[in-house]
């Protein structure tokens, strides 16, 4: 369900305790590994990790480039991992055959990933 929260703290406060705990645990891992120059924000009704417009303003929709997002939906929680090409090189997150995260050009040949 889409949230109208304007801050991450407000978003987390809206969640039932069980979901808040799961989202906070995933958020902690993301924040620990978030590349320098990206930011956490609320956008599109969910917690997003994005390239700020100050760093890369030339986007097709005038919105920051989203790198990943966390959302609590009606029946499940989602972790979105998305294509981010802010430096002119596609950086796609995917997993190799051993389940290890791959990041960088040629990491995969598919679009956004969604984990539920």
Structural features, described:
This protein is of the alpha+beta class and 116 residues long. It has one domain. Helices cover 21% and strands 30% of the residues. It has two helices and seven strands, in the order ααβββββββ. It has a five-stranded antiparallel beta sheet with strand order 1-2-3-4-7, with helices on one face. A two-stranded antiparallel sheet has the order 5-6. Strand 5 (92-95) and strand 6 form a beta hairpin. The longest helix is centred in the N-terminal third of the chain and has 17 residues, at 17-33. Residues 88-96 and 100-116 have low confidence and may be disordered.
Uncertain residue segments: 88-96, 100-116
Sheet of most strands: 5 strands, antiparallel
What is the beta-strand fraction?
25-35%
- What number of structural domains do the residues give? 1
Helix and strand succession? HHEEEEEEE
Give me the secondary-structure category. Answer: alpha+beta
Separate helix tally: 2
Number of separate strands: 7
Radius of gyration: 14 Å
Q: Categorize the overall geometry.
A: globular
Looking across the biggest beta sheet, what order are the strands in? 1-2-3-4-7
* Mean pLDDT rating: 78
Distance between the termini: 14 Å
Helical percentage: 10-25%
